[in-house]
Amino acid sequence: MLPPEGAENEFIRSFSEEDPQAFQEFHIAYVLETVLRYSESRSFNVVVIDRGVLDMRSWLLNWVRSQKMDEATRKRYDDLLLGSAAIRRIAAFYHLISSPRVSLEREFDGSITKKRGKKMNEESLAGMHDIWRTVRE
After folding, report:
1. 51-65: pLDDT as tens digits
2. Among the residues of 42-121, which ranges form H helices?
3. Is 73 helix (H, G, I), strand (E, B) or coil?
4. How far is CA 43 from CA 1, 33, 62, 103, in A?
5. Residues of the chain falling short of pLDDT 70
6. Does the pTM of the predicted model rise above 0.90?
7. Rounded distance, CA 115 to CA 82, Å?
8. What are the backbone dihedrals phi and psi of residue 43, each rounded to the nearest 5 degrees, phi first?
9. Which whole-number Å values give the CA distances from 99 to 68, 86, 103, 125, 127, in the listed order?
């Protein structure tokens, strides 16, 4: 089973980022609910959660670095994620990282447009690459 990642969820995609705290809490709730729901399912032996907890932690750190959130708030959310019942139900983490160059090649391969977006650009991906390595450690 491969449930959609938060960014693909229609409710999260349409939720305003005007209030960073509300946006992150909504996203965190989705991540935790997904892990808890599928950990109780008798329909699947393996569930692959694309992004999930590690990605959520990465975006929290990104928001601190981009001054959308203070460090104390990020730490509170990080403690919630790491101390949650959901984290205890995860059997394994596989954290794969590609270089910004490879990420952009994959994103735009076969695409009509090569226009860089707010997140899919060299600068943003380089910053996230550093954050993903920090969170993984």
Report:
1. 788 888 998 999 999
2. 52-65, 71-82, 85-88, 100-108
3. helix
4. 9, 17, 35, 33
5. 1-2, 4
6. no
7. 37
8. -85, -15
9. 25, 29, 6, 8, 11
